[in-house]
Design brief:
Largest sheet: none
Number of helices: 3
Radius of gyration: 21 Å
Shape: flat
Number of domains: 2
Oligomer: single chain
Order of helices and strands: HHH
Helix content: over 70%
Structural class: mainly alpha
Length: 106
């Protein structure tokens, strides 16, 4: 057994699963850290669009589709838990902006 092998290999898979997003985050932050000048407006829009697309894709494939699959016993209403949770999350995140729009709080 080599020094990096532990047990049945599950720890190795876990470590690889942790290192891949960690390295992606580090590389992304290094790119931003070394950008000395301001980005053009077009480049900023492209990067924001890319980031929002990645997050939307991650939420759909990692959260919404598994939630629908886990509630298949509900038949044609199997989408309802994911739909409800989705809208509760939107309302929860929108609440501070809604409160801040009242003139009494400004």
């Amino acid at each position: 057994m080599k020094f990096w092998q532990f047990g049945n290999g599950n720890l190795n898979i876990t470590m690889i699963g942790i290192l891949i997003p960690f390295l992606g985050t580090v590389l992304g932050s290094v790119c931003v850290f070394f950008m000395k000048k301001k980005l053009s407006r077009f480049t900023e829009r492209v990067l924001v669009g890319f980031a929002s697309g990645v997050m939307t894709t991650a939420s759909i494939w990692s959260l919404i589709i598994p939630a629908i699959e886990q509630s298949k016993a509900m038949g044609k209403f199997s989408f309802l838990p994911a739909f409800t949770g989705f809208w509760i999350g939107i309302l929860f995140l929108s609440f501070p902006f809604w409160i801040a729009s009242f003139p009494i709080f400004i």
